Amino acid sequence: MNDDIERSRRRISRRRALTLGGAVGLGGVLTACASDSSSGSPTVTPPTSTATSAPTGAGSTVADLLARAPQCALSKEETQGPYWFDVDSIRSDLREDRPGTTFVLALRVQDGAECAVDPSAGGIANAVVEIWHCDAGGVYSGFESGSSSGPGGGPPPGGGGQPGASGETSDGSYSSGDQEATPTDDGTYLRGAQTTDANGIAQFTTIFPGWYPGRATHINLKVHVDRKTVLTSQLYFEEVLLDEVYATTPYNSHVGSRTTNASDNIYDATGLVATAATADGYLGAINLAVDQ
């Protein structure tokens, strides 16, 4: 395993993560969103590095990528997998000190009925988008000893069950009633949530996810509206991009056989993320059509 990943794992604690991650309460975020909405149509500002660094022919802004991504495709409901718990953390930067390639992800949540008429319409404001994914070595925060790539070997690779389920259900500021797994440690890296703006867009800064045995590379997500989960799904990436990223440090220290999209029993093409290269990593975007 890459030395930077090993050192980073040893430094993590939940208290430090929430302090340094700048987590804030949902009420304050929604108040800010309402204030922004009343002052006119907000714009989504991509990282400054994306303005000129995208390859010719590829979108270099969030708006470009959202237009390039599949329009108003009703996102497939998929398993939340065995590594979810209610971290109850509103923050845009999920990295903490995880080593890996910078990945900025924008997700537009749309009302499926409205965007079916106009693909650019139906953005749902003040929805909460929550994402979580493994680090460059294939391990999830909160489950370092229980992840498939962790020292404990983890749950079955299919990811369809809830090994370690606590019997508890979420009751945080944006999620209520979803079954949680029991964490094996107090890590929170690469987990968090953001509220959508007036256009239905939420944006995160994270690292490009790694992989673990038995599953294609993916990012898990939930969309919550009024504390009700209206979508649980997973995001995927083109194989050419995965080969490119995993040839670099620290990903290339992770040995073994990677499961491709075609070989994954959960993969669905509606979850493919549109991406563009930036000066320090990648920008990705996807449209998420939901039934409210």
UniProtKB/TrEMBL annotation:
PROSITE patterns in the record: PROKAR_LIPOPROTEIN (PS51257), TAT (PS51318)
Q: Domain of life here?
A: Bacteria
> Which InterPro entries does the UniProt record give?
Intradiol_dOase_core, TAT_signal
Give me the stretches of Polar residues compositional bias: 168-182
Please list where the region (Disordered) is annotated.
Answer: 35-58, 144-192
The family database entries (PANTHER family) matched by this protein are listed as:
INTRADIOL RING-CLEAVAGE DIOXYGENASES DOMAIN-CONTAINING PROTEIN-RELATED (PTHR34315:SF1), PTHR34315
Could you identify this protein by its name?
Answer: Intradiol ring-cleavage dioxygenase
What organism does this protein naturally occur in?
Antrihabitans spumae
